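Input record (Table S2, row 215):
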Amino acid sequence: MAYVIIITMTNTAVSQDLLEACHQDGCPVCRLEHAADLRYIDRLFYERVNEYELRVHLRASLGFCHNHSRMANEEIHAKALGVAIIYDDLLRVVLEQTGKSRPSLSIDKKCPVCENQSQVTARIFLDLTKHINSEELQAALRSSRGLCFSHLRHALGVMRDTNARNLLLQIQREIITALRAELAEYIRKNDYRFIGEEIGPERDAWIRALKMGGG
Ligand SMILES: [Zn+2]
Ligand SMILES: [Zn+2]
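Output record (zinc ion complex):
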């Protein structure tokens, strides 16, 4: 979904969630999206199973996408009864659609968790754009693992404020340059001529690079 961030200058502080996400492992935007997904799925199964609008949405999206079905099962251990009720209804819809003379299985809406995630992501980039001049946020971003490729691409697409985009880009490029230096050190120490040298903090640089690439 394409959307453009329009900045309205307010005195609101940088979100604590964003600052905290910068101090954890991995891309801070991925981290915040993941936490929001878990909260959304948890609430859905505990409070919203019989909500009419949600059930209509789930029929149109044929349930959850692969990623969020897995999350509901493995990370939330979603309430079994809620899953049974929702999926019994969806299986009925599938039987209905595939039992017609011209069988079809159309998906007319995005998975509701993905839809919620798009709104969450938009708010995160709005927050980043609004507060990028804050020294606190800049320091937090510099100490973070940096944005994954996917969210960096997203940032370049939606952050139309040149100053904000350039600042984020500058910080991201510093993180990538430092990671490359660690990778170079890791590769060098794997050369048989330097095999006796102890491997330092660069030991997991390849994992961090992989995570940055894959989000
Ligand atoms: Zn990410
Ligand atoms: Zn989804």
